[in-house]
Write a structure and sequence with these properties.
Order of helices and strands: HHEHHEEHH
Strand content: 5-15%
CATH architecture: Orthogonal Bundle
Helix content: 55-70%
Strand order of the largest sheet: 1-3-2
Distance between the termini: 43 Å
Number of helices: 6
Length: 148
């Protein structure tokens, strides 16, 4: 099958299918593809704020607030008032949140294996390197989606 479509269309197909795949794989955890990145970041950066997450993902604060609220309701995230700034809340994973991280990582690995089927290790590494460069270049765009 040869796709004769623009680069943006190719990226859209991959992104959309990742969304569908992850929602299917994580359905038993009642997690959506939008909540997963928050959990993964919190597994590595305990004590980060919602504002920091929003900036990291280049999405608005309201979207992050809704994702965190749902994760709190599911018992996966703790939100504690920052003792240095009472208007901010520090986020961390609960024990339940920590337990889902390996399941998420396994699903992500499974998706990568589907994407890179037929690639050699060198080709896979090359693609990941080049995609990282594309992501970094996209962040250098003079037009930012949201103001700080």
């Amino acid at each position: 099958m040869s796709l004769d479509i623009p680069f943006r269309g190719i990226m859209s197909i991959i992104t959309r299918n990742h969304y569908i795949f992850m929602n299917h794989e994580l359905k038993h955890l009642e997690l959506t593809d939008g909540q997963v990145p928050c959990l993964l970041v919190l597994s590595k950066k305990e004590g980060i704020t919602q504002d920091e997450l929003a900036k990291m993902f280049y999405i608005d604060k309201g979207t992050i607030a809704r994702a965190i609220k749902k994760l709190e309701e599911k018992g996966m995230v703790n939100k504690v008032q920052d003792p240095l700034n009472r208007r901010r809340y520090l986020l961390s994973l609960t024990q339940k949140g920590e337990q889902v991280i390996p399941v998420i990582l396994q699903a992500e690995k499974k998706w990568e294996n589907i994407l890179f089927k037929g690639f050699s290790n060198e080709e896979r590494s090359y693609m990941l390197n080049k995609m990282t460069i594309l992501a970094e270049n996209s962040l250098k765009s003079p037009i930012k989606p949201y103001k700080d």
